[in-house]
Amino acid sequence: MERSVRFAPGARGRLTEHDLGRFSGATLFDRVARALCAARCLPRKELYEAWEVARRARRLFKGGRVVDLAAGHGLLAHLMLLLDDSSTDAVAVDAHRPSSAEKIHEALVAVWPHLSAKVRWATVSLETFELASTDVVVSSHACGGLTDRILDRAAAVRARVAVLPCCHALAREGDPLSGWLDGPMAMDVRRAVALEAAGYRVWTQTIPAAITPKNRLLLAAPAD
């Protein structure tokens, strides 16, 4: 008897046509996954990460222009639109646009043609892109201090924001909270408290640890 191979959502192997049978359902997630299998360029874990961030963000934040900061391949921007078509458009902002971005865009547009006119890229630094208070700012695994820069940019215009931090850049001298909390947790707690102090309502959630151990999702919207 052959032993079945466990399908781990956190695996870094790229999705290909060989994975199509794993996504045979009629759900939106399965349809997205099948389209990305055809693109042959996306690590499996990044599909699951972007999906979990997008669907949790959309439960709270409807409408508005989507701005995916430090967007990389831009999948999160596309998913935000597919989960809520009341948003007018989405912008994937990154100083460097990887070659996978166009492949992913083309694969999704082949199934959802309306995305062609609704998703665009801005190949600029996140500090130079102009945000608005009506935007929904999102970012999945913005490394180290990038997360803080994104939160600062969103808070400066009172935009709604959802980030999945990673690669925490810890202070050399440590954090006073480290007696109770590990360094990355302490840093994320401080981020949440800072947003609340800035007049935001904050939600702290997690995505499944099987996808990534850096799974704390921070969401916030102006309280007034």
pLDDT < 50 stretches = 1-5
Q: Which series of helices and strands comes N to C?
A: HHEHEHHEEHEHEE
**Helical region count?**
7
Major sheet: arrangement of strands: 3-2-1-4-5-7-6
Major sheet: size, sense and barrel closure?
A: 7 strands, mixed
Shape: globular
Number of strands: 7
What percentage of the residues does DSSP assign to strands (E)? 15-25%
Query: What is the rounded distance between the termini?
Result: 61 Å
Can you offer a commentary on this structure?
With 224 residues, the protein is α/β, with parallel strands linked by helices. It has helices spanning 28-39, 44-60, 75-83, 99-111, 115-118, 146-157, 183-197; strands at 66-69, 90-93, 119-122, 136-143, 160-166, 200-206, 216-222. It starts with 27 loop residues before the first helix and ends with a strand. Residues 1-5 have low confidence and may be disordered.
Structural key phrases:
single chain; 224 residues; alpha/beta; seven-stranded mixed sheet; 7 strands; disordered N terminus
Q: What order do the helices and strands come in, and which of them pair?
A:
Layout: H1 28-39, H2 44-60, E1 66-69, H3 75-83, E2 90-93, H4 99-111, H5 115-118, E3 119-122, E4 136-143, H6 146-157, E5 160-166, H7 183-197, E6 200-206, E7 216-222
Helix pairs in contact: 1-4, 2-3
